[in-house]
Fold this sequence. Notes:
This protein is α+β, with helices and mostly antiparallel strands. It is built from 18 helices and 23 strands.
Amino acid sequence: MAGESGHGMQxxxxxxxxxxxxxxxxxxxxxxxxxxxxDPLPTNGDLHKLFPHLDREExxxxxxxSIAPRLPFDMQTxxxxxxxxxxxxxxxxxxxxQATAVRLHRxxxxxxxxxxxGGEIAWRRDYKxxxxxxxxxxxxxxxxxxxxxxxxxxxxxxxxxxxxxxMAYLLDESPEWARTYENLLSDWIKxxxxxxxxxxxxxxxxxxxxxxxxxxxxxxxxxxxxSDEFRMSMLRMLLAHGSYLEYNLEYTRHPGNHLDANLAGLxxxxxFFDDCKVGKRWQKKARAMLEREIRRQVYDDGVxxxxxxxxxxxxxxCFTVALAFGRRxxxxxxxxxxxRLAAMARFCAAYTRPDGSTxxxxxxxxxxxxxxxxxxxxxxxxxxxxDTAQLLAQPQLAAGVLKQSPDLLFAGGAQSGEFADSSxxxxxxxPADAEALQYFRHGGYLVHRSAAHHFMIDLGDYGxxxxxxxxxNDCLAFTLWLLGTEVFCDxxxxxxxxxxxxxxxxxxxxxxxTVAAGDLEQVEFGGLWRIKQDETDVKVIGLEGNPxxxxxxxxxxxxxxxxxxxxxxxxxxxxxxxxGELTISDTIEGTDPGDARAxxxxxxxxxxxxxxxxxxxxxxxxxxxxxxAGQTINLFDAPxxxxxxxxxxxxVFSLACPAVLRISWQHSx
Length: 669
């Protein structure tokens, strides 16, 4: 899709545009000025009308009994097995430690250090800046505040910590975990009336929260310490979550991970309330839209059109979670849905390095739906890859994953192979890591890999059909991992609205391993999540390769209209008996700009020293590397972000174009 701009509308897009107006404009107004002006929280009487077959006096108990087969897992019958499998992955000490932190109101979100939130949690507060969002209708105040980041209250209110409490309860069935679960959610409900405050502002947050509440219900379904009054309160709130999502889906001209999360949440809620017509309606709507969106947003080679490895993982999780809940509800998805999801897993397997780490192309905001590890490494995508592969009955897609995913324990039967059937078995079953050279032509990425190296380069457009979204100015940028060590890295994301200048710097051209013409961007920004027009028009001029070599030449036209030149880059890689070498050459085709420079970003963990002018010697985990520039290398510090909310420094240098960089490496003796 390189070179396309998503700003003009074609005749064929008119039906889509009508749906955008209806779902993104009309329905939210109907909710705001219809349902929300009345009390949007259903009453117990509303529940009784929806489920007339349940006894009013024993409603909570009978509902819990009826929903058990459709929950992600069934504590009535699977407790012993789940506990046994859980302890194969986690130590009892770690399980209790992360649950105890929740009980003590200590959380670690979007930053390195754990933070105590006090005796009573302020659910609408950014605890890092101390800023509170107002207790007003969710649409009636701005999300941005000087120095504050709305993602902090959102991250807390996703309630993924319910899983940490649930795992501790599964471990020892101690009443303190059940009481903490009820007390915290009761307090959340009290402080966050339906449609009021920042935690109802973004439908994506509502959807992720609803899914985690359903998981919380599953963990504590058999806990006698939980009161019926609280269970009824949860049921009313979950119904309100579903109603809110039905009317407020984030259906835009260029939908992405937000809508995917909305639909995963609507599917989960539809299955949870399967015994009533409302739940059936949510299921039907979610399935139809998920089928459409996986075809719209995921290219046939499996790459998400948002052009971000972090968001690729999140979108894959959205489609996987929706499929898992659908299976529990007896809902069939098409073969094409399975094929696109399997293709997403193959791309994820391709960009995953031998040590399990991943390159950080595009934005990365630590986004997950489910989390079972409080101290999760957000650059490790193995858990999601394994979940998707197992759910599709294609475990070979995750053959390179180094450790078992905890998600599989609670994925509704995927671990036992319950979801395998003949339709999925007919999908492509070739091992995901069988090919050393993998070119994702439509998505615009190329990977060359072995057990000793991983080279990845962006050969595509900015993202989202020219809209921008979560892509970066990283056209023809590459990352390089050698012998257990990341050598050339991406600068990451760091922040969004809290610091717009830093946001733009980290997604800018000079923050990536590519060529910049002075301070001019490859693509001009049109806002924090928009671009003005994508004119990169990438062309692959030559490509040959095999497991032992790669010869690539490509160019882009991002600077052509504004500066009169194209950037052309060649990459020549050779695997040698005891190592290998990579040569990156950059030239300017057309007008010669004197300010064109190739930028290179060294991973902060890389150990290196100068070995002469224009030469660096590097110590790798399993060998050594040598970087030769043919020009003077002047190193300086620049911001680097391994995860959202965390910004450090790393070493950067640039070379005047034309530039040639040669990297050679050798295994340890």
